[in-house]
Amino acid sequence: MRNAPTILHLDMDAFYASVEQASKPSLRGKAVVVGGLGPRGVVATASYEARVFGVHSAMPMAQARRLAPNAAYLVPRFSLYRAVSDQVMALLRELSPLVEPLSLDEAFVDLAAGGTAWDAESARQTGLRLREDIRAATGLAGSVGLAASKMLAKIASEEAKPDGLVLIEPGTERALLGPMPVRTLPGVGPATGDHLRRAGITTVEELAEAGEAELVRLLGKAHGQALYAMALARDERPVVAEREAKSVSVEDTYDVDIHDRPRIGFEVRRLADRCVRRLREAGLSGRTIVLKVRRYDFSTLTRSETLRGPTDDPEVVREAAGRLLDSVDTTGGVRLLGVGVSGLADYTQEDLFAQAAKPSREESPEEPVAESAAAPEPAAPHWRAGQDVRHDEFGHGWVQGSGVGRVTVRFETPQSGPGRVRTFLVTDPALRPADPLPLVPVPAGQPGSGLL
Ligand SMILES: [Mg+2]
């Protein structure tokens, strides 16, 4: 392990909810919950004000509404989150070529590899400057952890939240970790935590004292050995830039070329399922779906599609692979098919939200539209809480709610004060969906005004 705290872990604070508060001045300082608003929706992110009521990510939305009935419940706006994420990741890449994003709002950076830090003091200065730069570029707060390993850097950023920086001096790791609950360590979920508690182990120090043999007996070889190493603060995993990150893929070569299009589609779905099984076994999720097709004449094509967030949902991967297949000419037959997932991430809160990463989910109404043979009129517009709108007379705003043929809009922008609320008929022709506005005004004449 290196002897200077030059691995940085950045984690934006309550990212989706903070973006919403920055966008919507009337929600600043208020409880905000972002997630799926349909019957099976879950919380993606809750603002700190909402967490006070016990709302947290992955909680069913219905439960959140019982705990915090007065919070603002909003659909996610991934295009905006991605644009802000791109700004943040660009700042990280100025620090080092080795940036490993874990999700839209979280990444490891190897500062030593970038020559931006070599000891505790230079690492701290770099971390402080990064937090200022992120605030200037996005208006948002990110917490920074600095340590000599990825595991400790991530624990440090958790300790730093909200809006802080924690640096763990090399040599102090074990003393710091010792009293922490076992659940602090990566890979220790509720089930492992319960199992260890029944064996009388609740803290990291107790894990270390139990010894490797005992942990292997309790948890099996791989998990036991890994956990023992972590309890001793041993973590040698390098920061891996995304483009080098391994992918998980499966492929099949066929004895006889396949010509039949439905059969090709069937094989691609089967490969997608197998790929997802491999992904899940490795405890990973990924953002880029890759389809590989080798045709009868040995020409090989690859097509890829990047989702808005990491997924390990077989349905999402199947659908993406199917869309990619649609763009490939398979006349003449195929001799090999492959499906892969890259842009891998460890499990993070965002992948609970992988469902919402499906383009079809984000763009379509959440309630199923009743299919009717005789649909005489076009369906009324479907306004979703949180979405951007523009009114011919009142300008930019967002949907606060809708029902019984009415939609309530609050007219405000990231740079305005809290705005006024007005109510319209859902069919009002002066009201239209709009694109999100940038959180920080782009100086005139500078590229980037087309950011979103
Ligand atoms: Mg975060």
Mean model confidence by pLDDT:
87
Unreliable spans: 347-378
Question: Any idea what the CATH architecture of the largest domain is?
Answer: 2-Layer Sandwich
According to CATH, the homologous superfamily of the largest domain is Reverse transcriptase/Diguanylate cyclase domain
Work out the helix count: 16
Strand order of the largest sheet: 5-6-1-7-8
Q: Tell me about the biggest sheet?
A: 5 strands, mixed
Q: What percent of residues adopt helix (DSSP H or I)?
A: 25-40%
How many domains would you count in the coordinates? 4
| CATH-derived topology of the largest domain | Alpha-Beta Plaits
The total beta strand count reads: 17
- Gyration radius over CA: 24 Å
What proportion of the residues form beta strands (DSSP E)? 15-25%
- Structure class: alpha+beta
* Distinct small molecules: magnesium ion
CATH class designation of the largest domain:
Alpha Beta
Distance between the termini: 41 Å
Question: How would you sum up the global shape?
Answer: globular
Description:
The chain has helices at residues 15-23, 48-51, 61-67, 78-95, 111-114, 120-138, 150-160, 173-177, 190-198, 204-210, 212-219, 221-231, 261-281, 314-326, 354-357, 359-363, and strands at residues 7-12, 32-35, 43-46, 72-74, 99-103, 106-110, 142-147, 165-167, 248-258, 284-295, 300-311, 334-346, 388-391, 395-403, 406-411, 420-425, 431-433. It has 452 residues and is α+β, with helices and mostly antiparallel strands. It has four domains: 1-169, Alpha-Beta Plaits (2-Layer Sandwich); 175-231, DNA polymerase, domain 1 (Orthogonal Bundle); 245-360, Dna Ligase, domain 1 (2-Layer Sandwich); 381-452, no CATH class. Helix 10 (204-210) packs across helix 12, helix 11 (212-219) crosses helix 12 (221-231) and helix 13 packs antiparallel against helix 14. The two termini are 41 Å apart. 40% of the residues are buried. The site of magnesium ion has 5 residues, from strand 1. One of its GO terms (biological process) is SOS response. It comes from Streptomyces misionensis.
